[in-house]
Amino acid sequence: MMQKAREKLRELRALHDDGLLSEQEFERRKNAILDAEYAPPGAAPAPAPPPARQGTELGFMTGQEIGPQNRRYRLERLIGTGGMGQVWQATDLATHAELGSSEMVALKILPPQLTQSATHAKLLIEEATQARKLAHENIVRVYEWAQDPATASYFIIMECLDGEDLEHYLGRQGALPLPTVQELLQPVADALSYAWEKHKLVHRDLKPGNVFLTAKGDIKLLDYGIATRVRNAGSSLGLETPNAGTQGYRAPEAGTHQRQPSPRLDVYAVAVMIYQMLEGRMPFDDARSASDLPSKPQALNAPQWQVLQNGFSLTAELRPQSVQALLEGLERAAGPSPEELAELARQEQARLAQQQKQAALAAEQAREAAVKEARARQEELDQRRKAEIQAAALEKQRLDKLRREQEAQRHFEAEEARKLRKEALRGQLRARREADAAMALQEHQELQRKAIVAKAEAAYRAEQERARREEASRAAAVPAPASAPAPEQEHAEPVANAEGILRDDFLDGSGQGPELVLIPSGRFQMGAHETEHKAAIQAGSQQAWLERELPQHWVGIERPFALARHPVSVGEWRAFVKATGWAGGSETDWDNPGFVQNEQHPVVGVSWNDAQLYLAWMSERTGRKYRLPSEAEWEYACRAGTRTAFNVGDTISTEQANYDGLYVYNGGPRGVYRGGTTPLGTFAPNSWGLFDMHGNVWEWVQDVVHDNYEGAPVDGSAWEEGSDSSRRILRGGSWLYHPRYLRSALRNGFSTVLSNDIVGFRVARTLD
Length: 768
Known about the structure:
Blueprint: H1 2-17, H2 23-38, E1 65-66, E2 73-82, E3 85-92, H3 95-98, E4 104-109, H4 118-132, E5 142-147, E6 154-159, E7 163-165, H5 166-173, H6 178-199, E8 211-214, E9 219-221, H7 226-235, H8 264-279, H9 302-311, H10 323-332, H11 338-477, E10 501-502, E11 516-519, E12 522-526, H12 530-538, H13 543-547, E13 553-557, E14 561-564, H14 570-580, H15 608-622, E15 626-627, H16 631-639, E16 698-704, E17 727-731, E18 748-751, E19 759-761, E20 764-766
Parallel strand pairs: 16-19
Antiparallel strand pairs: 1-2, 2-3, 3-4, 4-6, 5-6, 7-8, 8-9, 10-11, 11-14, 12-13, 14-20, 15-20, 16-17, 17-18
Helix pairs in contact: 1-2, 4-7, 6-8, 9-10
């Protein structure tokens, strides 16, 4: 009981140190714990404290909505409370859910007094941004940070987990055997190694409460660096947080203004956790001195105990360099188990018994051999001559058999040589047929591409001819005045080159528009079928998303049009900004989005309204009508005649598009997660010459958001009626998203006034 009282007092002291309890409240709760612990037998229990008001100590309640106006979250239930505030399960009510995060998220709400200064808020933002880059299966994913204007509280939006933390697990299970401890902590070591080797990050606040055991059996590491950064910020506000980390698990050198925190900080904390998990109690009291040394756990032998003592040594240099090294040291020092020693002793006894048995048998055999030897000598004399006769006969048989075997071997080798020559000839013929087939396929694809270009050019010229005939007919019907001036010469329509690429010159001769691909008219089935939806559900898609793609229907693209080969690049957008003085107003900086880019990367941080300004500017510079493609035109161009989930087949890999390759789709291979956009042209185009139609950035189209295709136009035009015009469709997926979001049929939506580091756009042009 005394041990439980000490743990309660330690937790209470942590809350007070983090500034979450006043001095008066701390003393009241401390006295209540001590009164309950030391009450005399038979004494009446101390009166219970007055009931708390509905809600939590920070003032948040179930059903409350928090967050900025364009990113609201509804609190569903309080998951936990600790020194860093509260963790709630919440429903994403805003546009963040439209961009692909789960509808259910976890919110870590920090007390306002820890971030009330702009400097400390900036530290939180930097730390949350660093945590967002940690993409590891044993580290909880951090999506974003935000501030609630009503309470001034900052909160972090994270992956929502189902399960319990290691602290509650130990409370139920008590002391654990060493193999279980090693099994639980190995994923923690993997996550720490990844964070240090890839990002030079140290956790600095390891404890059982920051290790989470999911219902699926996964281990997740929580609060990577954020808690320590905010605690350090709180110390400059006058709150009593002299060191980084949690008392009891904090290394003595923590919080001493080190230039670069060392992984040995985490080694100290994990060594304390190992002792706690083995013994069911902490190794040290609150105030530890150099002479303190707890008793050796029964589960450890002497070499292992020395390794663990080195792990929580007061001298950092004596500790192993990493948590992985600590676990490996315990494994090496284990030596044989008692069961293994017993098995070795049993085997040794069996070996000695076998030796004795063999010695007795040998003695008996020796006696029998002596008797037989005399008899054998006589028999040997009798048999020698007989043997010589038989040996001569056997030698003759051996020589005859050898000749037959040599003859058979020569025949076999000749047959094998004939088979090898025949197989080599077949291989040559097969290789020649495959080369001929590949050449024929390449020629067929080239003829198909040229046919598509020719069809588009013919349709375009027919449209021009029809327009000229109509104009001539109207001019002939209305006689021109005698004094009317001669009409100005029309701006000639450019003609696509041999590769089907069209570029418009600027009217002032200062440059050219983007590279455009001529897209012919035609028909296709828009949306997805039931078989594709089954694969998408197995990959994690939600039914509500799939219903947006129904019903699958035929659409006729009645008129050819031109579509940009690439999304608008950073360099093209920079020219627009320089020419127009556009300053924007979004929270995403298009010129510094948080990952490395150059002029050939697709621009991000552009809202739908910003894209309209760019299209108007491009139309003015070229004298042609530039616009966003309709949703039907985009899917028609993306598919390029295919009917599969992607234009490369029913699965996709990170060798074909830029997305989060840590996730797979429909049996596809696991790939890489690049953490940002890739340059234009990195991956092969589709069969119509269009690049990055899958992944890299979401692309704006002209249509407003509808829940499904009921009532959608079937002529390829944009659907702008019957819904809220302030929300428009996004297509194609992005670098941050799972492969299931890259399907040709998938539809997303976003506010026209918002931008993001995963959203760009591609221009279309009407053929005059």
